[in-house]
Amino acid sequence: xxxxxxxxxxxxxxxxxxxxxxxxxxxxxxxxxxxxxxxxxxxxxxxxxxxxxxxxxxxxxxxxxxxxxxxxxxxxxxxxxxxxxxxxxxxxxxxxxxxxxxxxxxxxxxxxxxxxxxxxxxxxxxxxxxxxxxxxxxxxxxxxxxxxxxxxxxxxxxxxxxxxxxxxxxxxxxxxxxxxxxxxxxxxxxxxxxxxxxxxxxxxxxxxxxxxxxxxxxxxxxxxxxxxxxxxxxxxxxxxxxxxxxxxxxxxxxxxxxxxxxxxxxxxxxxxxx
Amino acid sequence: xxxxxxxxxxxxxxxxxxxxxxxxxxxxxxxxxxxxxxxxxxxxxxxxxxxxxxxxxxxxxxxxxxxxxxxxxxxxxxxxxxxxxxxxxxxxxxxxxxxxxxxxxxxxxxxxxxxxxxxxxxxxxxxxxxxxxxxxxxxxxxxxxxxxxxxxxxxxxxxxxxxxxxxxxxxxxxxxxxxxxxxxxxxxxxxxxxxxxxxxxxxxxxxxxxxxxxxxxxxxxxxxxxxxxxxxxxxxxxxxxxxxxxxxxxxxxxxxxxxxxxxxxxxxxxxxxxxxxxxxxxxxxxxxxxxxxxxxxxxxxxxxxxxxxxxxxxxxxxxxx
Lengths: 274, 321
Fold this sequence. Notes:
The structure holds two protein chains of two kinds. Chain A is mainly α.
């Protein structure tokens, strides 16, 4: 079992490390840049937001907190954790990783070589899951690293506490789990990676939009719970210094349910390249 | 115990047919050919054996273990070459042997390098730089290197040049002599004829023949050419019942021999012939008759093989399939 795991792991790492490294460095660079630049514009941005109510609602909606009283340094730093570019980069890497098996292997025709070895599909799932979480940990560590570099110019009083950053990171990892679990499930149901990718990004865009629209349009608030973004509130964590544990619990439940379904479907379905 | 045992196997893809009520038994050390036209169900059967596809009905077992529920265990003893071989673009023979060795928990590097030498394959050439034939060689080596008890090869000679085809045939004979069972599908009738002990022919999802090559050969007709001394004697002659004349042209007759050559020679001795030629048994015509005939039952009626209704377990290939 462990030998098979080690062999498959070496193959998976060989195939993914460059993408994970590039994704992590991109996230780190972006985190450094944003966490360095945003506090510089805090005052101007706060004045602008207070004067333009629509923009105020837009930013409130994107961050998931009320910014009508202006932005503190802590709050503005939370922008980084909800920025679409940041999330899109993380999700892109993640969806690529989570659709490798079976959709990716079927799509590139290598599944028959892979499953021609004496390995179970469940073992392949476990290996891919390990790589997925290892990549997630790596990306989040690089994000925290970039963030720490960016905020190092701020005074100690302005910098968020390490515990707060850690809680935001936990919330992000839980979101990462929910997205990845769903991607595994879509992959288990598909023979085409492109299709799995498109479906996942469709789900993520709709989810993001529901959350965003719910923030600026009251009638949409009743369906906000359908969006996974409703359970991801780093700005709240930065504002209050605490994490509402029900949010990561919901995200982890989604992750566990979708990943388990993916494993069972993937292990039981017929698989062929044509 | 049979190495491969397939019992009433049916696989449907929704409304589309895969294979229907297939029965097969393949014993240890056999070289078994699995023949059939495109879309007949050869690859479907192989994929069920490898545990990629779940059977709709019936069962498939390898070395006594169920092909679906015990697939990982079975594959320790199986070497598989897919028909539509796609390899990881980054591997070389050397790296694939290292990977395969780690997964299989045994050192396959040495055996892989020996095979690479026999197939004239550079062990450090990366797949993305390989030609189709070279990739096929690597696929074959991946299937052979761990010295499995069963080799399942889906069209193994595809893309190989004649010299490499000969080398593969040599290796398969060596392995079979050492007790390895070889199950391979092919379109190439010649290689099946020279290599296999037994063949099954699958058409439209059903096995229409499962026989020893020797048995097929004994049923195969021989072509006969008779050259009379003149056209008058040819016109006056009357062919015996076991000689079916297909063409008469002046003093030349061409036909098929449905019986022993001795009978023909006896009859010929009473004729005024200038020359007589008796060809080798024409196995290809038998194979083609299985491929081309529309109705499975018609095959049986023509005596060319066994109909679907007669298909049953016949270990050792006693005629019906």
